[in-house]
Amino acid sequence: MFGALYAAEGTDHVVLESVAREFSPRIEVCGPREITLDLSGLARLFGDARTIADELRRTAADRGLRVRVAIAGTRTAAQLFVHHRAGITVVEPGTEADALSELPLLLLDELINPKTQNPNPKSQPPTTNYQPPTTTLRQWGLRTLGEFAALPADEVAARLGAAGVEWQRVARGEDRRPLVAAVPEERFEQTLELEWPIEGLEPLSFVLGRLMEPLSAHLERRDRGAAVLHVRLRLVTRAVHERSLELPAPMRDARTLRTLALLDLESHPPDAAIDRITVAIDPTPGRVVQFSLLTRPLPSPENLSTLAARLAALMGEGRCGSPELVDSWRPGAFAMKPFAPRDSIVIHSRHDTPRHRDTETRNLVTHLDASVPRCVVEVTAAAAPVVALRRFRTAMPARVRVEDGRPVRVWIDRRGFSGGRVATAAGPWRTSGAWWEEAPVAPKPRSGEHGPVAPKPRSGEGGPVAPKPRNGEHGPVAPKPRSGEGGWDRDEWDVALHDGVSYRLFRERDGDAWFVEGVVD
Amino acid sequence: MANNNALALIETALRERKLDRTLTSALPPLERSDAAAFIPFGVEAIDAVLRGGLPRGQVSEIAGSPSSGRTTLLLQLLATATRGGEIAALVDTCDRLEVASAAAAGIDLDRLLWIRGESFDPLHSLRTRLCDRVLERAIKALTLVLQAGGFAIVAIDLADMHPRLLRSLPFTTWLRLQRIVEGSDTACLLVTPEPLARSAGGLTVMCTGQTTWTSQQTGSSQQTGSQQTGRGHRVTGLETEIRVVSPRRRVDGEVRFTAVANDY
């Protein structure tokens, strides 16, 4: 036995749904004002169908809703009646076709419209140029559902196809599919009021463990993972200290979640003692993981998350991750992003692997690409290594003797950097940029982007005293403090000193100061 | 009769003292020699001399002075590992990594975990407490990454730390690292100014190198020593010679390779 509720315009959908759930746990939302219910078993509670319908209408009226109620042996019949008649309609099971025979044909349009009837509209492509089914039927002279239902099915199929046969079944009140019950939104949240306020991470660790265990079990029952973890701590000062952790991958292991929460609170501790703890999780469907037999497995996202959190607590925020090149000509510009490697399949290039192995690998990749998106990495033949530069994030001031426009001797007042006579030099290579940007007064590097930091003149550290430059010698007369942003204008030199060490130097053109940027190694 | 013949054979073998070799020659070798036990450098000449590359499950070292090619070799190793689909980690004690160099070397940056230490000048600073703290954090970070597992290479760049400071570390530090990686597929690599760990199973490589220059006017290549500093000179590369100094790892000699310069 099925029922249908059809509410008036402007009805609160949430209230309508709550009314339906009071009578049955199996309900399907068919539209913003329409709900169908499975009423099986309610006869023992309420009595006959008429009594159930009265109770439904009375409960809705108590909530301020005006609804039409229809009860029939099939969902389709109940929906057709509730669209046609106001008030309460009860049809005996098995008599749906006869009861529907006099109803107008236009009801088919309201029921079969894909926008309102499909419980999963995203699963079907949007229909363009949709024509209501009754257009053709009315041209044939049909006016009621009974007339349409009486037509021979094979003739209808020959003229309207399989869709026409389906419409005919709807006209007879037959269900096209079973009821798809709507699952109520669940909350994944646990709260604990403490009898005595707690301070410190150690007691908090026990409490968090106690809260995470049931949450983890709940997630497992629902085959969900945690996408975001919220920890709300109510302090004795009545303030609320809230932290939200966005997890790199869905996870539900209680120990991992507790560790991540503790590591985060270690970096962002609350100001006062805690007397109430709430842990909430934003769920997401669990991961489907298929490991490859051909490549080494990557560490699980849980392990990587925990490692990243521990490293951040040890080295500081923003100091760990994957480097990223940025679209900038600024020397040494880069950005940091979270470390999140993807699975990959390696294709070896032809000239260093047997041909049959290459073919097999490509065939495997083609097959897997159809099902799982993969990052294909091509390993080329061994190329010559590329010379690396070791860059000093803070450029070191240097004193340079220049003759005929070229450096001939370098002094670096740093222990471990000897300086000396220049054996070979290449340059100058002029570079400049961002001259249109104003250098900020207080150096404040943007998050994720870094550049050469201003070599501030130091005191008390044995730094360069900046002796008076002799004839032909240029040095840090007044090393100009530069920020991570703003323009740069300099001449770069690659120099090899007599002791064999090669440096990259640069001269600030506006201040004539020399600096060591890095070491070729 | 058959038993007598067998007995005679055994006695003959014992008399010629060949029986012990007959028994032990069939035992499997103590060290793995299959290709999967090594991480190749990606340079054919080097891998041929080192018989495969960097051994997994061991602590190895690349040592040398500035401009000897240590960092070039390190980036080449990371590039080979990451291009092969594995992940690598670099504990950059003094924050020296040039990202453009890493990209030019072919490292898949998405598969590299970069742990940046504090950007300061360890060779100059008189604040030894700062040096100790930075070094301690770097070793802790290295330990965390090794314990997490799953990485092909975990390297720590100690090239700019003062040798006296590194020598003051207890030797058990390196033994502890060896115990962590033993039996795993992770290779631990130290980049140092001088050999430190001297791991028995690992590879210790000394680098010596010289920058090569060329004159755009003549097109010839020459090494340092020339006083001619014409406008046309530019760096063409870095010639590095690597020599294995590990006491037990057998290699076939020294190898020299040339790294090419990249415009960055």
Plain-language structure description:
The complex is a heterodimer of chains A (521) and B (264). Chain A has 521 residues and is an alpha+beta fold. Chain A folds into 4 domains: 2-171, 2-Layer Sandwich (Alpha-Beta Plaits), CATH 3.30.70; 188-285, DNA polymerase, Y-family, little finger domain (Dna Ligase, domain 1, 2-Layer Sandwich); 321-386, no CATH class; 389-520, no CATH class. Chain A is 29% helix and 30% strand. Chain A is built from 14 helices and 21 strands. Chain A has helices at residues 13-23, 43-46, 49-62, 75-84, 96-100, 107-112, 114-117, 134-139, 145-149, 153-171, 201-221, 254-267, 301-315, 355-369, and strands at 2-7, 27-31, 34-38, 67-72, 88-90, 188-198, 224-235, 240-251, 274-285, 320-324, 334-337, 344-348, 375-379, 389-403, 406-411, 420-433, 449-450, 473-474, 488-497, 502-508, 514-520. In chain A, the strands form 5 sheets. Chain A has a 6-stranded antiparallel β-barrel. A 5-stranded mixed sheet of chain A has the order 2-3-1-4-5. Chain A has a 4-stranded antiparallel sheet with strand order 6-9-7-8, with helices on one face. In chain A, helix 4 links the parallel strand 4 and strand 5. The longest helix of chain A is centred in the middle third of the chain and has 21 residues, at 201-221. Chain A is elongated. The N and C termini of chain A lie far apart (81 Å). Residues 116-127, 344-382 and 444-483 of chain A have low confidence and may be disordered. Chain B has 264 residues and is an alpha/beta fold. Chain B has a domain at 35-206: Rossmann fold (3-Layer(aba) Sandwich), CATH 3.40.50.300. Chain B has 8 helices and 11 strands. Chain B has helices at residues 2-15, 19-24, 44-49, 70-83, 99-105, 128-148, 163-167, 172-181; strands spanning 38-39, 54-55, 59-64, 88-92, 112-116, 153-157, 187-192, 204-215, 221-223, 233-244, 255-260. In chain B, strands 3, 4, 5, 6, 7, 8, 9, 10 and 11 form a 9-stranded mixed sheet that branches. In chain B, strands 1-2 form a two-stranded antiparallel ribbon. At the A-B interface, helix 13, strand 10, strand 12, strand 14 and strand 16 of A face helix 4, helix 5, strand 5, helix 6 and strand 8 of B.
